[in-house]
Each structure stands twice: as C-alpha cells, then as structure tokens.
Inverse folding.
C-alpha cells in the first residue's frame, strides 16, 4: 500500500508522526513524505524539522493520503497548487484522510462537501464553511474519507485503519508494539471534560491564532 | 527550561515526538535536538528523517535531557562518545529522562544503577544487566530520573512532567491542546491484556531484532 503524508511548514509533528508510527508498521506499507519541495520543513513551533523525500510533482498517485494539521494548514486552504494536487491524488486513492486541521485542506479542495468530518475541537465548526458536516467524534469516516480529531487522535485513527485493513491480529500487534495503553495523568483531553476555564482560555487563544494565520482581522 | 532531545539513526520517531509535542508547549520551554552531527538522522524504518540542530559537542548543559528509544539505541550502549556526553550532561540536569529503550542508554552510562526504571515491555528485563531495577509501570520516577515505557508512553510521561513542573492548569491546557483523550480501538496495548499469541510472537520478533542490533549470536 502506497501511503503519502503531506508535509508543510507549520505542521504539528505529532499529527503526522502518530499515524506514521502505526501505518508504517502495516504489512506492505510504503511510506513517502511529500512537500512543496523535497527537503526540510519546520513544524509549528519552528523548532523540530522533518524532511520531505518527494516534491508534490514527484507524487502522482497513492493508495492512502494523510494530511496532518497545524497552523500551517491555513495558507494551504488558499494555495491552489496544493489543492489541485490534493484533488488529483484523491482521484487515485482508496482512502483520503486527515488529522486535526488537515481536514480543512481536504475541505478547501472540495472533497468534504456534504460529508461528515472532524478536526481539532476548537476549529471543527468552521468546516461547515466548506459544506462539510462538523462531527464531534474522535475518528469520523464517510465513504473513503476519514478525518481524525486534534493532534493525538491520529494514533487512534491509524489503529482503526490498521484494524480495518489488516484485521485484529495485525492491529493488536502494532498497538502492543508501540505499547499504546494510554494512561493520561489528568482527564482533560476532551473539551467536554476539561475544566471550563481551561477550555475557554484555550479556545480564545487558538481562535485568535487561527484568524491570524488566515489573515482575518 | 532548556530541554534537549538526543536524536540518533534508528530512533523511533514517536518516542521523541510524543513528549516533544507536550514539553515544547510548557511555558519557557527551549527545545534543541542534538545528534552526532548537526544534520539529518533517519528513523528506525529508514523512511522518516528528522533534523538535529546541534552536534553533541555544541551542547554542554541542559535542564531536561530526553533520550528516546528505537533499535538505534543498541549501538549507543557501547558508544563511549555518546555515553560520556550523557554522563556530562546528566551532571547539569535537573531531570534526566528516557522513553522506551532510551533507558538503556542511561543505564549503559551508569546512571540507573540501583534505580527503578522501565523501558519497552519486551526489553525491560535486560535493564537488570546494568544494575537497574526493571519496573513494570508506564512512567517510572526515581530521584531525578524518569523513564517511560514503550513508544507512546512518552506522551503520558510528558504530561506527568508538565503537571509536576507547572501544575494542573498548564498540564490540562496542553492535554486539551493536543486533544489527548485516547480511544484505542482494541485493548491490546498492554502485554498483560494483549492476546497471548500476539504477545509471544512479538516478543520473539523483537528479541531477535534486539540481539541482531546488539551483535549477539
């Protein structure tokens, strides 16, 4: 299975690396990392750098496309070169997927019209602007489109896909291999259970950054 | 807080990126990625490449050292240049930490003698060869040393450290920011709950790779 991750400046590393660590362990997985150019991209905090191994133009087809999120998705929503590429690749995939705000790239490409989709909880509702149906689930599947919620949800997305594609033995072996037996110290990872003052402050901060990244006053 | 991740060829990306995504969000965090040289390193499956931004010799002190795991830790157990650097940095840290088999680098450097420590479940017992006390917990703390279990445990480690250093509001905001509300599809991430045939097959496969990576017949 040919799996392509789209990488771009300003991505959130865990959005990509979570599903990568799962999907790359599937039997027959061939993973590539595509970017505007073949080279280095920087993550959202400008610190960790990941390397692409292909330019967009080098990749013309794949079985599974994964678009991670991060504030760097905002410019992509208006970048016709990227959106054209996403549309063209989507015509070749068996599954087109995203993590966190990566769903906005799929939505801006017109792929989620009338479809249920999710994103980071603080941004999700804006998917409706592209005709998608914002859906508050950790992993949302609609036809061949799968969208995962914020950042760490990409791990759950990856495992659900491994289960679907390869069955429980392979999925369990991958899960045990990455010892994914989560034990959060606090129960604050869901907006419905995090303390209200934390949620509201974070929503305000993320919305401000979102508007800034989109150039909205 | 100056945080340094040790990167090396053959690391498991999620071991580093999980805690990075948490720790880099702590107020005042300054993150650097140190490697044998400043440049590119490849992860365990030879596909994803991460960039170091400092050579070992560029880093002489930090507050928090994080050593991730992966099969690439085996050569490091006998690499005096790396072990000397780890010992020297450890003299300057307030915390010295690891994820997965990163604990073997700390152990080989002599830092875990007589201390409780953990690692990937399939490898953990071998820590006793270095005088450490293998401990089956997701995150083990002994003095200023914290060791996390396999791969994905680095996220829980990061959040537990954010809680300790910055209190519940900061830790909750980070957890909500990365939407860490895990929802594994299967309950197979713990060796005690994974199906026995999966666990035994994986243990055999990982042990064989471990011996090969260590050059043991």
């Amino acid at each position: 299975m040919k799996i392509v991750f789209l990488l771009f400046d300003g991505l959130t590393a865990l959005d990509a690396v979570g599903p990568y660590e799962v999907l790359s362990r599937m039997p027959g997985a061939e993973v590539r990392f595509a970017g505007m150019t073949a080279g280095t991209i920087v993550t959202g905090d400008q610190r960790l750098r990941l390397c692409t191994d292909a330019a967009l133009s080098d990749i013309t087809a794949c079985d599974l496309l994964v678009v991670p999120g991060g504030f760097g998705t905002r410019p992509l929503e208006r970048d016709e070169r990227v959106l054209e590429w996403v549309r063209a690749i989507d015509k070749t995939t068996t599954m087109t997927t995203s993590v966190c705000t990566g769903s906005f790239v799929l939505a801006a490409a017109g792929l989620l019209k009338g479809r249920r989709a999710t994103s980071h909880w603080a941004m999700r509702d804006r998917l409706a602007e592209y005709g998608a149906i914002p859906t508050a689930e950790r992993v949302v599947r609609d036809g061949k489109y799968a969208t995962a919620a914020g950042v760490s949800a990409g791990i759950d997305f990856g495992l659900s896909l491994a289960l679907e594609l390869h069955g429980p033995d392979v999925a369990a072996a991958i899960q045990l291999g990455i010892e994914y037996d989560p034990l959060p110290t606090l129960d604050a990872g869901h907006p419905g259970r995090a303390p209200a003052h934390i949620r509201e402050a974070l929503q305000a901060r993320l919305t401000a950054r979102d508007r800034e990244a989109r150039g909205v006053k």
In short: The two ends of chain B are 43 Å apart (CA to CA). The domain at 2-184 of chain B is CATH 3.40.50.880 (Rossmann fold).
